[in-house]
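Reviewer 2 asked us to include a model.

Predict the structure of this chain.
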Amino acid sequence: ETAPVKMKSVFLTSNSVSRNKEPLLKGPLDIYSKEDYITTSVLKNTATGEDLKFDLGPEEDIEVERKEDTFREKKGFFSGQNSITTTVTVRLKNRKKEKASILVVDRIPYTNDPQAKVETKNLPQQNELSRSGILKYPVEISPGETKEIKYEYKILYPEESRLKEKQREEE
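Predicted model (structure tokens):
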């Protein structure tokens, strides 16, 4: 799993379903692969049949990079609206010797203003976009492969409106 808008890391996670007859109680959980200790994760209170997710730490052999290219256009001739078009490029590189399945979590701006609109274009297949702008999509990468995923969003807003933009700290 990765959220490249926040970090340039991919994190290992393990997902399962609780099959215990009794509920599992919240607390620390040591995780092993065969006899090898991997990490300590945190277990939440979990009922039988409920999903379990364990965070296993960063995966050093998968690189992720996210880049945004933004184009601003003042008052369109026909629409009477300003627009900001952003092309997002997410690049993933698998240096492992096995295939990797990665869930990419990103964000797309959203608005509650009826005069403003956000349009998306070329979103990845099998994506899930929430009303609050959280975009999730799976990516499969073969050993040694590099994949680039590109998509776009456009914010349309009236000429007299001003957008509040939260500036991100550059690394």
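Confidence is low (pLDDT under 50) at residues 167-171. The two ends are 21 Å apart (CA to CA). We have added this to the supplementary material.
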